[in-house]
Amino acid sequence: MTAAFATPAAQLCIFLLGCAVIHAARAHADLITRPLAVAAVAAAVLVLLVASLDHAPEDETFDAVAVYGAS
């Protein structure tokens, strides 16, 4: 630990700064969580859509018997 951070006043200021950063992050977490969750669900849906289009038969009839037989 350096001498600049050894004084109790400096340690108190650093502690209060850390508390302020954590409090600000908590306040913004509610605003950020919903869009991130929506983006994750949308990305998962797109991945599943692309995978299903890639695996779909091209020239065959698309009925339940053909799908079951291909799997």
Radius of gyration, in angstroms, nearest whole number: 27 Å
- The average pLDDT is 81
Largest sheet: none
Oligomer classification: single chain
What's the total count of β strands?
Answer: 0
Strand content is under 5%
The tally of domains stands at: 1
- Contiguous low-pLDDT stretches (5 residues minimum) are none
N- to C-terminal separation?
A: 64 Å
What count of helical segments does DSSP give? Answer: 2
Judged by helices, strands and strand pairing, the structural class is: mainly alpha
**How do the SSEs run, as a string of H and E?**
HH
Shape by Cα distribution: rod-shaped
Helix percentage range: over 70%
Could you explain how this protein is built, in words?
Keywords: Membrane, Transmembrane, Transmembrane helix. The chain crosses the membrane at residues 34-53. The chain has 71 residues and is mainly alpha-helical. It has one domain (3-70). Helix content is 77%, strand content 0%. The chain has two helices and no strands. It has helices at 8-55, 64-70.
Short synopsis of the structure:
The chain is mainly α and about 70 residues long. The chain is about 75% helix and about 0% strand. The model has no long low-confidence stretch (mean pLDDT about 80).
Blueprint (SSEs and pairs):
Blueprint: H1 8-55, H2 64-70
Keywords:
rod-shaped, mainly alpha, 71 residues
